[in-house]
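C-alpha cells as discussed.
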C-alpha cells in the first residue's frame, strides 16, 4: 500500500546494561540507541538502530547513524510516496553501507504498514511458521571460568536451549574445554567476532574436539574466501555473521562453501526486505539460519521475534528475555522466555508490544523531528 510519511522522529536513548557485555573488541556497559518513529495517517511505526556506540562491530556507530538518518535516509523517504514497506529500502539504496541506520528506518516503515493493515508484523513479513521461537543466549567474555560457569548454569536453569560463548585469542580452547567438561550435553557455540586469521587455523581446528554447534565468524569481518579455506579444514560448521550484508553475498558464500550456517541480523543487512532475501537464498541452498542479537532494547527485540518466525530460522537465536540486559525495558509487557526456552509470538498489530512512552522520555538524551 502507498505510504506518504508525515514525519520522522529520531530519539537517542541511554540504557545501562545490568551486567557488562564483553566481546573480542571490548566491553559494553551501557547502550546508546536510536529509536526511529515514522508517522502517517495518525499512526506511528517504530524501528531501532542496532549500531553500537563505537565503530568496532562494523563501520557504523550511534553518531554516524544519527547523521545518516537525519541528513540522507530520512529526507529520501519523507519527501516521496513509498509504494510499500517492501520498497522503502530502495529509496536509500544509493547510500553506500550504513545498513544499520537505513535498516532502523526501513523496519519502522514495515511496522507502520502492518499497523495500517491491522496485522501483526510477523504475518506482514510472511512469517508465522511457528508460534513460539526457540531461544539461546549469548554470554560475553567473563573475568574467570567459574564466573562463566555460574552464568551458564543460570541461563540453563531459565530454560535456554543453546549457550553461545564469546571467545578471543587467549580465551578460547582451554576455556571451552572446561565448559564442555562441566556441560557435556549442552548445545554450545563459540563466537569470535572476527578475532582470528588463517594463521590461527591449527588453533581453531582444536575446537573440533568439543562438539560445538558452530564457530561464528572466526575470520575478518569482510572476509568470505578465507572462511571457505578454513571451513574445508574444520569439522565444526562455520557460521557467517559480519561478512554477510546482502543476499548476493550470502549466495556467494554458499556457492564457495564458506560456511554451513548463516546468522541474520536485521540491522546488518538493512532491514526486513533484504533479510527475507538472505533467508530465501539460504533456504534454497540448504543452509539453516538463526537470528543474531545486538543488545537490542524492546523494539529491536520485538522485530527479531517477528523475523524468527520465517521458516528457515530453525536454530535457536540470540533473542532472549528483556531482563537479561535491562533493569527496565522500553516495552510492556517485557519479553519473557518460557521454561522451555521459547518466546511466544504476539498477535497485536505491528510488532506486538506497547511502548513505555514515559520511560522512553526519561532516558532520551536528544530528539529531532523531520517534517
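Sequence:
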Amino acid at each position: 500500500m502507498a505510504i506518504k510519511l508525515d514525519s520522522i522522529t529520531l530519539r537517542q536513548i541511554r540504557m545501562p546494561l545490568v551486567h557488562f557485555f564483553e566481546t573480542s573488541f571490548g566491553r559494553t556497559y551501557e547502550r546508546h540507541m536510536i529509536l526511529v518513529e515514522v508517522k502517517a495517517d495518525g499512526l506511528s511505526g517504530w524501528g531501532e538502530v542496532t549500531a553500537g556506540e563505537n565503530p568496532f562491530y562494523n563501520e557504523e556507530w550511534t553518531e554516524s547513524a544519527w547523521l545518516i538518518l537525519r541528513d540522507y535516509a530520512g529526507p529520501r523517504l519523507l519527501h516521496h510516496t513509498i509504494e510499500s514497506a517492501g520498497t522503502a529500502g530502495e529509496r536509500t539504496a544509493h547510500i553506500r553501507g550504513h545498513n544499520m541506520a537505513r535498516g532502523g528506518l526501513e523496519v519502522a516503515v514495515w511496522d507502520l504498514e502492518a499497523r495500517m493493515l491491522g496485522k501483526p508484523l510477523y504475518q506482514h513479513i510472511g512469517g508465522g511458521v511457528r508460534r513460539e521461537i526457540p531461544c539461546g543466549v549469548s554470554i560475553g567474555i567473563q573475568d574467570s571460568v567459574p564466573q562463566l560457569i555460574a552464568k551458564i548454569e543460570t541461563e540453563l536453569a531459565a530454560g535456554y536451549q543453546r549457550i553461545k560463548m564469546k571467545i578471543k585469542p587467549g580465551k578460547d580452547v582451554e576455556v571451552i574445554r572446561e565448559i564442555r567438561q562441566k556441560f557435556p550435553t549442552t548445545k554450545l557455540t563459540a563466537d569470535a567476532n572476527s578475532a582470528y586469521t588463517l594463521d590461527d587455523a591449527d588453533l581453531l581446528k582444536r575446537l573440533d574436539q568439543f562438539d560445538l554447534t558452530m564457530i561464528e565468524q572466526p575470520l575478518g569481518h569482510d572476509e568470505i574466501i578465507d572462511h571457505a579455506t578454513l571451513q574445508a579444514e574444520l569439522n565444526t560448521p562455520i557460521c557467517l555473521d559480519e561478512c554477510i550484508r546482502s543476499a548476493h553475498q550470502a549466495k556467494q558464500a554458499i556457492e564457495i562453501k564458506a560456511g554451513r550456517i548463516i546468522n541474520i541480523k536485521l540491522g546488518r543487512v538493512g532491514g526486513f526486505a533484504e533479510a527475507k532475501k538472505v533467508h530465501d537464498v539460504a533456504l534454497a541452498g540448504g543452509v539453516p539460519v538463526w537470528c543474531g542479537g545486538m543488545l537490542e532494547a524492546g523494539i529491536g527485540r520485538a522485530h527479531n521475534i517477528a523475523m524468527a518466525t520465517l521458516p528457515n530460522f530453525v536454530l535457536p537465536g540470540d533473542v532472549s528475555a528483556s531482563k537479561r540486559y535491562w533493569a527496565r525495558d522500553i516495552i510492556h509487557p517485557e519479553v519473557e522466555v518460557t521454561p522451555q526456552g521459547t518466546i511466544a509470538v504476539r498477535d497485536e498489530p505491528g510488532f506486538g508490544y506497547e511502548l513505555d512512552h514515559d520511560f522512553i522520555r526519561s532516558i532520551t538524551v536528544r530528539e529531532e523531528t523531520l517534517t
